[in-house]
Amino acid sequence: QRPFAPPEETAGEELIARGGDIYSENCAMCHDVGGMARSSFPDLRRSPMLHSAEGFDNVVLGGALADRGMTSFAAMLTAEDTEAIRHYVISQTHIAMNQQSPFGPPPDVAPEDIDEVEEN
Questions:
Q1: What is the DSSP letter of 83?
Q2: Residue 19 pLDDT > 70
Q3: Residue 2: left if φ>0, alpha if ψ -120 to 50, beta else—which one?
């Protein structure tokens, strides 16, 4: 498994939030919450494609990995959508890197609830 090696996050909160919404609608069913791996699907937070908008689009819109099961989403997403998704995943990678667990925060647990969970 590749280590986390994201690019620096340069997007604003609005773009990241938009990416999170688009990700939830189009990507989470296979790639899980925040880009984590689900079953045999890759952990997007570890993808080298996070460093390249062109490479990311080649996979998501161009279908470069269709032979591995990642079909093109060009009929549903635009390059602006994929840029928002890419920045959302980059932000999730930085969050995971700052957590104690190598898998990042547990899904559906608010940061303020983590202390309570750890105490019990």
A1: H
A2: yes
A3: beta
